[in-house]
Amino acid sequence: LSGLSALAGVSDGAQHKLNAALEAALVTEAEAQRTTLGEGMAPRQVTVCEDETFHPGVCLVAIEPVSNFILLEGYAADRSAATWTAALEEACTGLAVEVIQSTADEAKALRRHAETELGAHHSPDLFHGQLARCPRVV
To answer: What pairing do the DSSP bridges indicate for beta strands 121-124 and 97-104?
Structure first.
């Protein structure tokens, strides 16, 4: 598409070994950094921004918006409140955080997960509200 194939090896196989090694090193370093962060972290209350993506299956994503730290990014069997709660609790293990607010769409499972299971405040996101009111603009 770009025409670079005449000048550079652009196939998936050309750099596969290097990419696999870099990905493995990145995962190892991320786990080490997360452990170090958790050990030296002062307890804090946090908001999480939660959403699901679908590639190829359900992927749960939770980000702490002040630091932009990805707390959770993982595939799940479903999007139920129980699944969300279990995944977020596992993701927060070792970190001195208490989730006091969740910003997400108005999905029943996300609301239940935040309000009932976490005992946190549910704050609706802006995007879905804007999309419903102004579909041609958003």
So the answer is: parallel
Mean pLDDT of the chain: 89
**Residue whose pair of structure tokens reads 């696999």 in the numeric block:** 20
* Maximum CA extent, the chain: 58
Spatial distance between the Cα atoms of 121 and 9, rounded to a whole number of angstroms: 51
**CA atoms of 111 and 50, how far apart (whole Å):** 11
What sections of the chain are H helices per DSSP? 16-40, 81-92, 108-112, 126-133
Residue among 105, 97, 100 at smallest CA distance from 118: 100
Give the model confidence (pLDDT) of 28-39 as tens digits.
Answer: 999 999 899 899
Domain 42-133, CATH class in plain words? alpha beta
- For the chain, the structural domain boundaries read 1-40, 42-133
pTM given for the model: 0.79
Spatial separation of the C-alpha atoms in residues 64 and 119, rounded to whole Å:
17
